[in-house]
């Protein structure tokens, strides 16, 4: 049991600050990268943790979405057509204004990106 917990902890800590793993999307920088808006979310037992929330993003900003999870899940950033597996991250330029959902599929809303 302890070995499983330790393995889950290591997987949950994997993310954008490390070199991309097979399940991560290339292009994610360290969280302290200048000019990057980092958005974090987690999925535990099939639910968003914390509850879904909205994040304001300046138009033209570089966005890094980091999702941790207790199992591998597909994550979709709607409107930007980015998909990747969590735990992992995706980086993109917020070049379209609007409200965009980030979901762990099939139907778990994690966060909304309000780009303006």
Describe the structure.
With 116 residues, this protein is mainly beta. It has one domain: Cupredoxins -  blue copper proteins (Immunoglobulin-like). It has one helix at 2-13, and strands spanning 36-44, 47-48, 53-57, 62-69, 73-77, 82-86, 88-93, 98-104, 108-115. A five-stranded mixed beta sheet has the order 3-9-8-5-6, with no helix packed on it. β8 (98-104) and β9 (108-115) form a beta hairpin. The longest helix is centred in the first third of the chain and has 12 residues, at 2-13. The chain is globular and about 35 Å long. The N and C termini lie far apart (47 Å). 25% of the residues are buried.
Tally of extended strands?
9
For the record, the count of structural domains works out to: 1
Mean pLDDT across all amino acids: 79
The SSE order reads HEEEEEEEEE
Largest sheet: 5 strands, mixed
Tally of contiguous helical segments? 1
Computed Rg: 14 Å
User: Which bin fits the share of residues in helices?
Assistant: 10-25%
Q: What percent of residues are in strands? A: over 45%
| Unreliable sequence segments | 1-27
* Biggest sheet strand line-up: 3-9-8-5-6
Which CATH architecture would you pick? Sandwich
Described by its quaternary structure, the protein is: single chain
- CATH fold type: Immunoglobulin-like
Supply database-style keywords.
Immunoglobulin-like; 9 strands; mainly beta; four-stranded mixed sheet; single chain; signal; globular; Cupredoxin; five-stranded mixed sheet; disordered N terminus; 116 residues
Please write out the topology.
Blueprint: H1 2-13, E1 36-44, E2 47-48, E3 53-57, E4 62-69, E5 73-77, E6 82-86, E7 88-93, E8 98-104, E9 108-115
């Amino acid at each position: 049991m302890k070995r499983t917990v330790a393995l889950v902890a290591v997987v949950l800590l994997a993310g954008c600050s490390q070199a991309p793993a097979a399940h991560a999307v290339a292009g994610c920088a360290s969280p302290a990268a200048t000019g990057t808006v980092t958005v974090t979310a987690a999925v535990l037992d099939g639910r968003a943790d914390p509850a879904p929330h909205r994040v304001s993003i300046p138009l033209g900003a570089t966005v890094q979405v980091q999702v941790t999870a207790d199992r591998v899940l597909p994550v979709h950033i709607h409107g930007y057509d980015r998909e990747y597996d969590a735990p992992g991250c995706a980086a993109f330029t917020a070049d379209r204004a609007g409200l965009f959902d980030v979901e762990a599929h099939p139907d778990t809303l994690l966060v909304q990106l309000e780009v303006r």
